[in-house]
Amino acid sequence: MSVKAFRLVPAVERDLLMGDKARINIECIECCGKNLYIGTNDCSIYYFLLEEKNSPAEKTSFSVSKQLHKYLSFRKPVGELKAASALNRLLVLCDNTITLMNMMNLEPIPTGARIKGATMFTLNENPMSGDPFCVEVCIVSVKRRTIQLFLVYEDRVQIVKELLTPEQPCAVAIDGHYLCLALTTQYIILNYDTGVSQDLFPYSSEERRPIVKRVGRQEFLLAGPGGLGMFATVDGISQRAPVHWSENVVGAALCFPYVVALDEEFITVHSMLDQQQKQTLPFKDGHILQDFEGRVIVATTKGVYILVPLPLETQIQDLLASHRVEEALVLAKGARRNIPKEKFQVMYKRILQQAGFIQFAQLQFLEAKELFRGGQLDVRELISLYPFLLPSSSSFMRTHPPLHEYADLNQLTQGDQEKMAKCKQFLMSYLNEVRSTDVANGYKEDVDTALLKLYAESGHESLLDLLVSENFCLLADSAAWLEKHKKFFALGLLYHANGQDAAALQLWVKIVNGDIQDSTRTDLYEYIVDFLTSCADHELVWKYAEWVLQRSEEVGVYIFTRRPLEEEQKNSFNPDDVISCLNKYPVSLVKYLEFLVLERRVKKEKFHTHLAVLYLEEVLRLKSLAAEKSEELSTSQAKLRSLLQKSDLYRIRFILDKISGTDLHMECAILFGKLEQHDKALHILVHELKDFAAAEEYCVWNSESKDLPYRKKLFHMLLSEYLNSSTSEHQLAMAAVDLLNNHAAEFDAACVLQLIPDTWSVQLLSSFLCGSMRESIHAQRMTQIALGLAKAENLTYTHEKVKLKGIATVLSDRKVCQMCQSPFSEPAFVRYPNGSMVHTHCAANRHVNSSTNHHLSSPSGRT
């Protein structure tokens, strides 16, 4: 695919060069800076000054002024010209002789130094001599199969080396120690320092003109078979793919990143980056193509032209305008070496952004995303394509010059709704990825607001995730958009995120009441309850308490019973106020009192009593319904009995008065137990309820936190209730036997034997008797063990005391107190286990020095 990389600009016209001399032809050219030299077939050298002019339209042209014309008098064509600007010398090959001339006046040097016997020559652009005041020249000698190397100074020449080649050289290029030679039948690389050669590939110089061109350090461009331009390194390998040019190429030049080739009719331009042909320029009768320090010059026999490269930025923009993204990017990357780093980075980022929009317009979203990221695109450039997505308060202005040609998404998609939907889906994905990265820094409000609008418009499930997480959505724009798309629940979340909980709740309540329609959450009522549960604005909780309780007493009470732990610890809601509110809602009231009494374990009599009364009233109500509510009755009775048993804070006699006259015998028994009237309680359980298991359980839970004698007392009372009945029922007797056998450890066997009837057999009480004996023996043995341990401990302390008493303590006037270092003046002293002796008053002193304190802190520090 074509690209305009060069313009062909005339430099030296025929009239300026030769006037009316029709037989003069151009044989060779050389350009060094502004100096242009032309060698002709009549043995003349023309020297021109080349001035570059840039017009306002940025079209480069050249003005040429003839400086000198020098006739060499060899009567042979000038074969080659090379300038050595460091020496101010022009090397001229004519009649197999290289003459050194002054670059400015074209006069031969006074010494007459020259190189004879050369058919062609080239300069080493990567010299190895290290001398800045000489140039290295490689010639193909008139001697058969001979190459010679010279050092050329300002006024003399010096031969360095002479080499023989396998065949006659037809063309040569040099880089460092390496010669690239086109021989008669092949190309080779020859290291003139070591003499080692490397065959490259075969080539017939008889069929077509060989080309050997140095294109870089240790790399050459060769005219290969089949119309290929082959790249070869000094190692004999190719690091670039070949370019396809004409079979009849007569010259090649390099102007990075392009290779320019000349044939009989055209100038072709190929990219070194992707090896594709980029441009073709018609050019007939051309026979010279050379590059001089980045300037490409082409000539016919009658005129000289310059290929002026268009700026790479212009070329890249042309490619982008043609939507040739890949070529533009390849060219942009290749331009890195020719552009200053900072300028390149700015240019390359913009190119990536432009390429991203081209891919985006073609719905190549993955490629577009990578280009946007690589170009660090201001994401608002992309958002601005979508009408109304940027907030009204945004101050964003599109980049100038623009990155694309589209006014908005409607123009880009031409109204195609399917394409538009895909573009919106891509933007949602892209914004979601970049919103938490550095790409969004500085304009997160624009990004999040645009994302919210897209989610709302498409009904995307991520809308709620965006609003419940940290976001920077602008309230005014976002609220209007959510209301427009009837996303009222999401609008409530937006209000909440902006600290407007009252507005959020008002909106949600309208949804639940059916005033407005939004099916986002089917459990919105429960959500409101949870919201109020964690709401720190207590006035708001009180405001909506009646509403949530009216809709569901069981769920609504959660706003008081499921407060956050930190609020519970602060008692932020006064229970009396809550109870006052809940008096109209009995179910909620019971659940709240259960929360206070059973969960928070509030130690207040009024709450315990209130809950007990509510339980009792519910039991009596259900009893009045007979068998209709038997399951509910069982549950309610279990709650009442559990509270009566476990709580010690309710008003016992008050509850007992309410129960009296009812058939709640078990509850009466529990209350008598709380009053320590166990005989009445056990009488009810044994004689009225005849629930012997309950009677045993009564003894167990009433003695749970009491000592063993109290526990035994209760079980003896129950046994007496069984045995001292006025009616000798067999059922009571069996209950007494079971009691003794199941709880043998709770009875004093001696007392039991006195109570039981004489008629009972030993076999009947065998379990009780065995258990009692086992318990008695166990108690005796445990007592003996305890006694033995106490004796052993006493013996240990006695032994230690005897040891201490057996050590003699000598006190003399030479002894000093270990604390005050003063001698003893009286026989009274204190002796420590480590043998140190101190005054009695020193021992009592609390302010002891550290060394003495260390001694006195011994674990056996008894005096």
UniProtKB/TrEMBL annotation:
Subcellular location: Cytoplasm
Keyword set, alphabetical order: Cytoplasm, Protein transport, Transport
Pfam families, sorted: CNH (PF00780), Vps39_1 (PF10366), zf-Vps39_C (PF10367)
A cellular-component GO term for this protein: early endosome
Principal cellular location given in the protein's record: cytoplasm
InterPro entries: Clathrin_H-chain/VPS_repeat, CNH_dom, Vam6/VPS39/TRAP1, VPS39/TGF_beta_rcpt-assoc_1, VPS39/TGFA1_Znf
PROSITE patterns: CHCR, CNH
Superkingdom per UniProt: Eukaryota
Membrane-spanning intervals of the chain: none
CHCR repeats: 563-727
Domain CNH as annotated: residue spans: 23-296
GO MF, one annotated term: transforming growth factor beta receptor binding
GO BP: any one term: regulation of DNA-templated transcription
Protein name: Transforming growth factor beta receptor associated protein 1
